């Protein structure tokens, strides 16, 4: 997840991460006003550094500032979960079950469409990436770390094979969610995931647009059955 981390240096990065943690662990709830002088002392940073941290978190939809009210935490519905840092902080804080249900609904909408596009636009390189991920999945067996790695490689390759620049970017949402599920032992359950993934690859290889769409839905239904 290193590429998802806030790109900052030293004390600036630490201030951003520390302040974000206070928001996500509930120290500051939505609507709460930040006591900036107290935060400066607590974090051991200058006013300039804290102002930079606030600016970063404001850009990510977590904070806002108004005259007479000061700097405050915005409602959760305004938090930019498509931002890789915000998603990382959310997952690290412990996302509830319904959060993963929302991710699954997103995946059903996006990955099925991506598979249809992949059936139309896939290249030999795309097919090789999908085949390689399948081979890794077979080799992983019940090893949870290797299984998650193979699964994320597969879904990244599938989004890439769509050749849609927006779908490809959504790996920044889907992959961290897959990793988080795997970290808590919630990858695939008792059913062997390889056949369902292989059916997606077969449909993509054969240029079967409708078949690829339905194969992804079947694959995601497998995940739902394993983790209701």
From TrEMBL:
Pfam families: FCD (PF07729), GntR (PF00392). Residues 9-76 form the HTH gntR-type domain. The keyword Transcription regulation applies. It comes from the Bacteria. Gene3D superfamilies: GntR ligand-binding domain-like (1.20.120.530), Winged helix-like DNA-binding domain superfamily/Winged helix DNA-binding domain (1.10.10.10). Keywords: DNA-binding, Transcription, Transcription regulation. PROSITE patterns: HTH_GNTR. Coiled coil: none annotated. This is FadR/GntR family transcriptional regulator. It comes from Streptomyces mauvecolor.
């Amino acid at each position: 997840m290193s590429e998802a981390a806030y790109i900052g240096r030293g004390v600036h990065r630490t201030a951003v991460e520390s302040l974000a943690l206070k928001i996500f662990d509930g120290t500051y709830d939505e609507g709460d006003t930040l006591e900036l002088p107290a935060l400066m002392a607590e974090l051991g940073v200058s006013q300039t550094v804290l102002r930079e941290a606030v600016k970063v978190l404001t850009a990510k939809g977590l904070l806002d500032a108004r005259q007479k009210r000061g700097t405050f935490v915005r409602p959760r519905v305004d938090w930019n979960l498509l931002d890789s840092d915000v998603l990382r902080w959310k997952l690290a804080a412990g996302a509830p079950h319904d959060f993963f249900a929302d991710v699954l609904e997103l995946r059903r909408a996006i990955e099925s469409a991506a598979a249809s596009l992949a059936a139309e636009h896939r290249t030999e390189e795309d097919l090789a990436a999908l085949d390689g991920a399948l081979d890794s999945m077979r080799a992983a067996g019940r090893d949870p770390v290797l299984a998650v790695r193979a699964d994320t490689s597969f879904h990244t390759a599938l989004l890439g094979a769509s050749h849609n620049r927006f779908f490809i970017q959504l790996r920044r949402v889907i992959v961290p969610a897959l990793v988080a599920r795997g970290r808590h032992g919630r990858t695939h359950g008792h059913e062997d995931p390889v056949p369902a993934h292989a059916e997606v690859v077969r449909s993509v290889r054969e240029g079967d647009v409708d078949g690829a769409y339905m194969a992804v839905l079947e694959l995601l239904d497998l995940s739902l059955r394993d983790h209701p």
